[in-house]
């Protein structure tokens, strides 16, 4: 067995993020050379990344960062395979670092983010792959959101007290109103709207809903003359369920979200909602 000390193992763990047994094996293979052991762990880690590509990542965390003046904010989802890793400090530190990088650099899209340099000589993709190797699980970064220009706020929800936030919402109002922003963000977290306004719903989605509504009505034996009204009612029901401004407000379902915002004297410019793995 190679000659190395507990201090060497500790140093290698700090440099690589790998587990104790993996570090001991690497030092043994490297005959006690810490630098060579780092290379061995990187090579083995990257092989592990490839092997994990086919596995699913449905756990993880959502991180939000908001500017001190609330003029911008970001939402980042980082996924892993198990809740055990999700609740770990290492994984959450990686998620936080990526969120801080997104906040600081405002990348145009995911592809730009992944090739951007998060540390000297290291891209975000490399950074995620290193986390993949050191944590021994598939780690996935495939979406983020950034809002800016108005009053931006966030809401994070934990589905379990021992896990990091699993649901995150970012909202942008046209003017400052902390209470309204919080209420709308919590509503969005609970009711999961897909669109801001009716106009944001793609026409092909609307047409598909019309086809389904008509086919369903015919299957139910509804009178031909009544079909247009029935179809329109069901399409409106789709809007009510999926368009945030048309949804009944969580705290008072006699009002729509639009009505609540109007009463508060603000408008919702945009939102983003992530639920880990969904």
UniProtKB/TrEMBL annotation:
Record keyword Cytoplasm present: yes
Residue ranges annotated for the Translation elongation factor EFTs/EF1B dimerisation domain, each copy included: 73-277
Involved in Mg(2+) ion dislocation from EF-Tu: annotated span: 82-85
Keywords, alphabetical: Cytoplasm, Elongation factor, Protein biosynthesis
GO cellular component, one term: cytoplasm
Domain of life where this protein originates: Bacteria
SUPFAM superfamilies: Elongation factor Ts (EF-Ts), dimerisation domain (SSF54713), UBA-like (SSF46934)
Localisation: Cytoplasm
GO molecular function: translation elongation factor activity
Pfam families recorded: EF_TS
Function: Associates with the EF-Tu.GDP complex and induces the exchange of GDP to GTP. It remains bound to the aminoacyl-tRNA.EF-Tu.GTP complex up to the GTP hydrolysis stage on the ribosome.
NCBIfam families: tsf (TIGR00116)
Family: Belongs to the EF-Ts family.
Name this protein carries in UniProt: Elongation factor Ts
UniProt organism field: Streptomyces marincola
Gene: tsf
């Amino acid at each position: 067995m190679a000659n190395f000390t507990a201090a060497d193992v500790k140093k290698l763990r700090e440099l690589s993020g790998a587990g104790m047994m993996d570090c001991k094996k690497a030092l043994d293979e490297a005959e006690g050379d810490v630098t060579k052991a780092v290379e061995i762990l990187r090579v083995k880690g990257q092989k592990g990344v490839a092997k994990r590509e086919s596995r699913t990542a449905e756990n993880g965390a959502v991180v939000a960062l908001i500017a001190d003046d609330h003029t911008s904010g970001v939402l980042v989802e980082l996924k892993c395979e198990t809740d055990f890793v999700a609740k770990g400090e290492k994984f959450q530190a990686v998620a936080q670092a990526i969120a801080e990088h997104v906040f600081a650099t405002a990348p145009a899209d995911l592809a730009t983010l992944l090739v951007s340099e998060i540390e000297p000589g290291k891209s975000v993709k490399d950074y995620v792959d290193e986390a993949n190797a050191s944590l021994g699980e598939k780690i996935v970064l495939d979406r983020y959101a950034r809002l800016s220009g108005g009053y931006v706020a966030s809401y994070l929800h934990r589905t379990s007290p021992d896990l990091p936030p699993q649901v995150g919402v970012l909202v942008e109002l046209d003017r400052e109103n902390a209470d309204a922003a919080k209420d709308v963000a919590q509503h969005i977290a609970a009711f999961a709207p897909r669109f801001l306004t009716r106009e944001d719903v793609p026409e092909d989605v609307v047409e598909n809903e019309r086809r389904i509504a008509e086919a369903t009505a015919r299957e139910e034996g509804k009178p031909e003359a009544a079909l247009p009204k029935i179809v329109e009612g069901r399409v409106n029901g789709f809007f009510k369920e999926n368009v945030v401004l048309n949804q009944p407000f969580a705290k008072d379902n006699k009002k729509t979200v639009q009505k609540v915002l109007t009463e508060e004297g603000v408008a919702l410019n945009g939102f983003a909602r992530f639920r880990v793995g969904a």
